[in-house]
Amino acid sequence: QEQLVESGGDSVQAGGSLKLSCASSGYSYTYSCMGWFRQLPGKEREMVATRRFSGDHSTSYADSVKGRFTILEDNNKNIVHLQMNSLKPEDTAMYYCASDGGGKLVDAPRWWLFDPGKYNYWGQGTQVTVSS
């Protein structure tokens, strides 16, 4: 059973940067797909960024974060990052990472990666707060 742990969340001023990390046990990210999602209280969990680390190696970003957020790999193949630049107050949320657990979504339609329900494993979240 895979376990995911997010870290790196903090409180920053608008325009600042944060680098979130997602550490996985059980499987290397090189044989899986993963996503970053965020959620506000009372709101649905929304896709922020996704990546296939095998298959077509595709990466997708929500329109709201394009050009500001980037998924980064790590020398440790059990860790992935979300580099968040030019942060805005509307980026404030609990951020979660998710994994398909070893390749379930590698050859699936790309939209599957945007659906939180398609992922097998989730971390417990890390809070990002951006003040104006």
Note down, in words, how this protein is organized.
The protein is 0% helix and 45% strand. It is an all-beta fold and 132 residues long. Strands 2, 4, 5, 6, 9, 10 and 11 form a 7-stranded mixed sheet that branches. Strands 1-3-8-7 form a 4-stranded antiparallel sheet, with no helix packed on it. The protein starts with a strand and ends with a strand.
Short overview:
The chain has 132 residues and is mainly β. Helix content is 0%, strand content 45%.
The assigned structural class equals: mainly beta
Computed over alpha carbons, the radius of gyration is: 14 Å
| Biggest beta sheet summary | 7 strands, mixed
Element string (H = helix, E = strand): EEEEEEEEEEE
**Mean pLDDT level:** 93
Helix segment tally: 0
Shape: globular
- Number of extended strands: 11
Which range best describes the helical content: under 10%, 10-25%, 25-40%, 40-55%, 55-70% or over 70%? under 10%
End-to-end Cα distance: 40 Å
Low-confidence stretches: none
